[in-house]
Amino acid sequence: MKKMQFSISINAPKEKVWQTLWNDDTYQKWTSVFSEGSKAVSDWKEGSRIHFLNENNDGMYSTIDKRVDNEIMNFKHIGNIKNGVELPLDATTESWSGSTENYTLKEANGVTTLTVEMDIVADYQDYFNEKFPIALNKVKELAEA
């Protein structure tokens, strides 16, 4: 697994960027870059389970490892979901279970730097190198509107 990092500067306060990232409506807009109809189902509290789902209710389940409003949101990925049901770990899932995806927001002079650091298995590195910059540009567009 490789740790990858993506970053973007957004001309908006960190509170606006935070809302853009995690509000249901805008979350679905920027994550559609990865999968059309994507959504997250959670109470968004630290320690809680979160389901990252596509339009068919397939995806993965994770926990919210750390949450500091308007600054940090960290996920620890656990396993896959099929038809809305958490699947037990198998050999493939175990290869990435425990990987992290961390969002950090830092603001200076009205400009927020959003940094995403995540563990990626080799098979998906090219995919995320292509898609994540597009997704972050969508966050920027939504937050600056």
TrEMBL record:
Residues 11-125 form the Activator of Hsp90 ATPase homologue 1/2-like C-terminal domain. SUPFAM superfamilies: Bet v1-like. Pfam families: AHSA1. InterPro entries: ASHA1/2-like_C (IPR013538), START-like_dom_sf (IPR023393). CDD domains: SRPBCC_CalC_Aha1-like (cd07814). Belongs to the AHA1 family. This is Activator of Hsp90 ATPase-like protein. It comes from Flavobacterium saliperosum S13.
